[in-house]
Model the fold of this input.
Amino acid sequence: MCFTNQKEGGEILLEYSRGTLDVGRVRQIEQHLEGCAECRRLAEAQRMVYSALDDWSAPEVSADFDRKLYARIAREKSSFWQRFLPVTPIVWWKPALPVAVAALALSALFVIRMPHAAQNPQGIGKADIEQVEQALDDIDLLAPAPSSSVM
Done:
């Protein structure tokens, strides 16, 4: 049975490549790898990854790495205003900004809707009345007739 078709086959091949399996299981996998090119390719690729990781060494960390890191974190956490204003003045208008935007939006809506209200002050036209009458007639047609017998 091929490991690529098993649910935990990939994990088994990883453990084989790491060298963490018992001797009996290693023999079984090596016998399978002799006949299965796909599993052999996967196991060899994983061995190459582990070999490259073993050969890799981390670069030296500079002496002022921590200071630079904390400064960058503080800079990222600072607000938009603090990044661009060296001294943050008392900004009295910040809390009023959302209210001002909402008032502006409502004013714009009122101005846009105003011409329609001036043309028809009552808001009801002949077409609206005819539509209401037609809807009531349709409801009367769809309503079930009252039955005289009660069960």
Summary: Residues 133 and 151 are 34 Å apart (CA to CA). The chain has a mean pLDDT of 76. Residues 97-119 form the longest helix (23 residues). The two ends are 71 Å apart (CA to CA).
